[in-house]
Amino acid sequence: MRLGSGTFATCCVAIEVLGIAVFLRGFFPAPVRSSARAEHGAEPPAPEPSAGASSNWTTLPSPLFSKVVIVLIDALRDDFVFGSKGVKFMPYTTYLVEKGASHSFVAEAKPPTVTMPRIKALMTGSLPGFVDVVRNLNSPALLEDNETWVKLFPKHFAEYDGTTSFFVSDYTEVDNNVTRHLDKVLKRGDWDMLILHYLGLDHIGHISGPNSPLIGHKLSEMDSVLMKIHTSLQSKERETPLPNLLVLCGDHGMSETGSHGASSMEEVNTPLILISSAFERKPGDIRHPKHVQQTDVAATLAIALGLPIPKDSVGSLLFPVVEGRPMREQLRFLHLNTVQLSKLLQENVPSYEKDPGFEQFKMSERLHGNWIRLYLEEKHSEVLFNLGSKVLRQYLAALKTLSLSLSTQVAQYDMYSMMVGTVVVLEVLTLLLLSVPQALHRKAELEVPLSSPGFSLLFYLVILVLSAVHVIVCTSAESSCYFCGLSWLAAGGVMVLASALLCVIVSVLTNVLVGGNTSRKNPVHPSSRWSELDLLILLGTAGHVLSLGASSFVEEEHQTWYFLVNTLCLALSQETYRNYFLGDDSEPPCGLHVEQGLDGATPAWQDGSACDALERDKGHRSPSPSQVLRGHEKWMVLASPWLILACCRLLRSLNQTGVQWAHRPDLGHWLTSSDHKAELSVLAAISLLVVFVLVQRGCSSVSKAALALGLLGVYCYRAAIGSVQFPWRPASQDISKGIIEARFVYIFVLGILFTGTKDLLKSQVIAADFKLKTVGLWEIHSGLVLLAALLFRPHNLPVLAFSLLIQTLMTKFIWKPLRHDAAEITVMHYWFGQAFFYFQGNSNNIATVDISAGFVGLDTYVEIPAVLLTAFGTYAGPVLWASHLVYFLSSETRSSSALSHACFCYALICSIPVSTYIVLVTSLRYHLFIWSVFSPKLLYEGMHLLITAAVCVFFTAMDQTRLTQS
Amino acid sequence: MKDTDIKRLLYTHLLCIFSIILSVFIPSLFLENFSILETHLTWLCICSGFVTAVNLVLYLAVKPNTSSKRSSLSHKVTRFLKCCIYFLMSCFSFHVIFVLYGAPLIELALETFLFAVILSTFTTVPCLCLLGPNLKAWLRVFSRNGVTSIWENSLQMTTISSFVGAWLGALPIPLDWERPWQVWPISCTLGATFGYVAGLVVSPLWIYWNRKQLTYKNN
Questions:
Q1: Cβ–Cβ of A590/B99 closer than 8 Å?
Q2: Shortest CA distance from A555: residue in chain B
Q3: What digits encode the pLDDT tens for the residues A891-901?
Q4: Are A169 and A721 in contact (CB under 8 A)?
Q5: Are the C-beta atoms of residues A332 and A61 closer than 8 Å to each other?
Q6: Most C-beta atoms within 10 A of its C-beta, which of A244, A351, A727, A837?
Q7: Where are the domains of chain A?
Q8: Superfamily (CATH H level) for A65-288
Q9: In A, which residues are within 8 Å of B143 by CB distance?
């Protein structure tokens, strides 16, 4: 079957997406879970151990507190309460911590520090797996929604008031919504447990970081809420026999930039304060509270309320809470907790008997039994107390070890699914690499031997072997396996795909070997050689791929791209100088017969096989273009690489991203702070103006007007939500959600995209009007630019303007005069796209995804548009560069096959890192940083591949229109 | 001509390497607490001075380009001044390039500038010594197939290897090993130094190895 190389590459990427999906499903393990799900609640509580003597205490202990109020403040960092900020803004809480009857701890949250998994951890004590973040991306929880609770525990709230808060920029209304019923509820007192979840602090953090003045206000407000609840609870206490409990906690912290999601100290440490009159008042000041785990809260609350501890909880009881109780009860509580933990251990660890925690548990249970016997025989004695405290210590040690071994126990990777995914992806990559010479050939077509009968036997054999393996693996596997859980049809389909790919590879390989023998006989390429640029591109790609194996390079990947793009610019500038000052290609060789060490000898792209396009292009390049250009244009050509370098340097200082240098001050923070609103407004206006000037030149007059109105709408939208201001209305009192303005812009985006598509279709159907097609493509590009302008935060608008500026400079002064071939241009576009991904402020950390992009112009949370908008907003850099690539190659019709070459190269250059990365991640799966560094990057890579697939489809569609045209 | 020339080239290069080694050991006799990493800036100055001095001495002693005619004193002085200006210009342009590569703009400016100085010492000073302040000749040497003697050939190789060394030296900076040599610009200066030394060692050997194939226009 003959395929164009663009179509072929698109198919390959599509299959790769499938492979990555299977891999991801296998990679993110299911979290530690108790299997006893069916008999929920049927299990009786473990009786008190007793050696010989009969103890009649088999029921659950009675509750310790009558009412529990949990005040959960989103993104409450430990130093907001225990640090200087706490002293300043939360005087009542500080008083309670220092002098009141309370216990305070620092609760460590496990990454990912995102709201939904953290609430799960707090309330059930279980450790949500990393995959919960992925699910969270699609669920409203990451989008900071008060209804999280109602969704998480749908049937457990008798009364709730789920308030909606869709706007991260909204930080007062959210909390007023929570507080509005507080007085009424507190007075009524017909409840057992009250959970108040305050989101305002988190929103402030997202907007302006932890050092914003707004934080202080919010903390004072929280302090007054806490005081109100506490006094009300204290006044209630006289009526009830039991004391009340007030819990103040945070779900996760806040990094120095105000976001969360990763595992830095600031994000992980949250305060946890338990306040009750049952606790002893302790004098003195505690500045350094004990560190505990966040999962401990669930177990403690269960004990406190006299409920069974959740089965999946890995937490241990916070002992100070029960310290005031009699010894027998204390031991009973600890016993219940250890029994629950050891059960969980038994279900998750095959060799649980060798676990030190389990041994300690058995020992302390025996001691406990002895103590009970003594206790029942005689009461109140020194011996009894000493023995009791010994048992207590033993229990606490056992709890600690058990909890630790449970939470560090990494759930098993689903190796089989991972292997299947890896095999598919690697097969596709091999196929792509093998077909490089054919695909980059002038004709840009290649033979895909899908139906070659010679390999049918091999094909069936491979299928047979694979299904045998499948059956064996699935019948013998102890742990759950996603791929085995698939239906037979789906699994069979994947197997057929894998074996078909294998056969294709084998046949292509034989073709290459046979063909290689014939071509070696006649030397076809006597004179062409690699330029330094090709060498750089090759080395850069290889270096980037290899750097993905080191966690620091993954964290600081933006540095890699900035470095590569800079070097690329320098190489380009060297090339322009050479062309204009020397024109050395036309010069005869000066007697040095051996080529210099840097320049390789093989005339090839990638793996030493020939590439006609390159060679032909070299031929084009030889008529020295210096005669063609004159005067200032020549100087522009010489200066443009330096201009681009300067732009990149400016953009780099706009958003400080990554980990090591993330705390460094950058322009973006300076601009977003509330003191510099005027500067930000001016900058945003100028950027929008630049965008308009650069974009309008290629558009038709209708879309020119639409673009102008749209960009105006973007500014109005930003002014409406209060991030920029109008000069004539300096104080913006009324901050709205800007729905109307944003929808106004959406209409123009759709209009421009529609005009572009119409032009494209017209150029295809009616007349072979080449110019119309170029205009159509440019209109699609400008529609995307307008959408990006709407979604980008105002301080990021210069990124957009500079991206357009660089594109214009490159097109005019570098690519056109220097006549690079399609492959080189594609790789350059890809590199710039990657660099712009990071210029936008993204990183390989989930916390930097700008979720507010998903709410622009939406009244309520609608899943699909929100996800699409967030994805586009995040990947705007690469997408815009890819769309520019399509436009550029179609407008410069030097060769008919440029577009399919470009598509093939784009697919190849995107799939090399992703396929290498999954192999690397598989081999590094026991690395210390696997969850904090490598897994988020894996998600980003998967998403990037999906975007690449979309881009390739667009490419192929454009290519198809060209084919039908000619 | 060949073997004696190559030998002379080798000896001059060995002298250069020797001067770099000396710049590591001699200052510790006079200065207290001298070490490459801790008093890096001092070392940079000393190394730069040593290498420049050796290059000048070699230029005066060996005179590889015999073609230069007798000229008046004033001509020599202007030539020297021109060389100084070229050197300074190259320092500043390297500084600009480092800033474009992401070096901090204001803080650590002295460090960045000294890095520019040492890189200029490894690249511009030999060029100035060998080719003089003559941009045409520079362009010729650094274009493809433009070299006309083994001296220029080795110059090309040492210069390129110094650049590549400095470029590679930037790679370990993002790693989280927290070593003292990862601090900007130590790894880059060390990379440039190693690149320069490698170029000095390799170029005579490479020329010796390929002496049969090498034919220059004017020989």
A1: no
A2: B174
A3: 876 667 888 88
A4: yes
A5: yes
A6: A837
A7: 2-28+414-513, 48-61+308-410, 65-288, 532-582+626-892
A8: Alkaline Phosphatase, subunit A (3.40.720.10)
A9: 578, 582, 584
